[in-house]
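Researcher: I need the complex structure. Ligand is iron/sulfur cluster. Inputs:
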Amino acid sequence: MGAGMNKTELQIRRDLFRRELKALESITVECFTCQHYATAHGPTCSMFNATPPADVVKTGCDEWIHDPIPF
Ligand code: SF4
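Model: Output:
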């Protein structure tokens, strides 16, 4: 059996995972949240070097990737 945890540790871990899950659930999958999306010279996808179609912008594509620290 692995290392156990007491009630306080269980509560701390639950709170930690709830906060993490809330942050992850707040991320929407769309071009605007994709690391490849840039607006410096008009709406452009650097992955495909093109402007994504409107239906793709709303849902992102299979190449969508998110950088939680954007600087
Ligand atoms: S088309 Fe795909 S790779 Fe390009 S910005 Fe949108 S989600 Fe990202």
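Model: Summary of the prediction. The two ends are 42 Å apart (CA to CA).
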